[in-house]
Amino acid sequence: xxxxxxxTKLLQTKEQLQTCxxxxxxxxxIAIKTDVESTTADQIIDCRGxxxxxxxxxxxxxxxxxxxxHKETIETGTKAAARGGFTTICAMPNxxxxxxxxxxxxxxxxxxxxxxxxxVLPYASITTGLQGExxxxxxxxxxxxxxxxxxxxxxxxxADQMLSAMRLAAKAGKAIVAHCEDNSLLHGGVVHQGLAxxxxxLPGISSVTEAVQIARDVLLAEAANCRYxxxxxxxxxxxxxxxxxxxxxxxVTAEVTPHHLLLxxxxxxxxxxxxxxxxxxxxxxxxxxxxxxLLDGTIDMIATDHAPHATEEKALGFLKAPFxxxxxxxxxxxxxxxxxxxxxxxxxxxxxxxxxxxxxAFQLPYGTMEIGKLADLTLIDLNSSEKIxxxxxxxxxxxxxxxxxxxxxxxxxxxxxxxxxxxxL
Length: 425
Hints:
The protein has about 425 residues and is of the alpha/beta class. Helix content is about 30%, strand content about 20%. The protein is globular and about 65 Å long. The two termini are about 20 Å apart. Keywords: Hydrolase, Metal-binding, Pyrimidine biosynthesis, Zinc. GO terms for molecular function: dihydroorotase activity.
């Protein structure tokens, strides 16, 4: 089976676009030329001059299955990923049951094989049941094709436990991925401790709650010689700690979400729980530090932290609603519109943060568009615009603070291993 993508635009050096055809045979790219003869293909798609890039990679996604199917399933979450241009997503382990044993990981792989529309790389948990008490069998689980180890949603509270986990992960050649949060500093917070918490009279979460665990963990990672990745960085203090750790040669990488790049606490006008996420939207100074950290390489990549919840759950208000927002279907259009079109970053930088950078950090064979490579590709319309409409989401989750935003850069076609998984041309 040969698929020919005609009339695409490929991004060249100096941000120039060049018209090219891309020929795919089975699951790999076999030609990238100015003009490929149509007679060589079984199926031809006219890409209408839209931008073709490597399929996006998201290392932080919540698919909720098993146990939370009313929020999301592997099928609906991966359909949402395909619509957003993502061909590889990494599924967090805060499910019920938690993937903390060989049997549970095997069952999860079977479900992914049956239902996933894009590539899903599952995490396993650092501790059994995400309870922070007993380490999962990290050495054994590492042999079960898990992506990495994390207790995302909760921080590992003791240095001894984190060090032990890092030593086991390092021996197994896997990364430790951390949601950094010191529970002793939380005090029931639901929003950043600052302007919004004061104005809305809500308990706040201080910046040090996150940064203090990162500071601890980078030193532990150095001692264990472990690859360590920081989830959803949100504060200027965290950026400073990670920058210093990188300068010291510690093997640390980090991600930032679209919502922390594009919003801050001043965007919370009322107690709308669609603005409730963990970590919370921070100050404008924090927001500026996050972009600076991306631009100077302190932060390596962008990840959505796609966290779907049922509408009735989010309707409970700031104090009782669960943390999290959806992001797979809106990430690229929001970032392109608000960062690239405003000339804060280049198109090449944005694409790299969503493709080659996560692939390099986690040693994945994806994120590039070259002859002989797997055909993971995303076609994007940079010119036409639309308004974000949560009712059109493929995700079960409609919990977004970006409803009604006008965006450009709409994914139109997603190809994963040569197979069309989304088409809206």
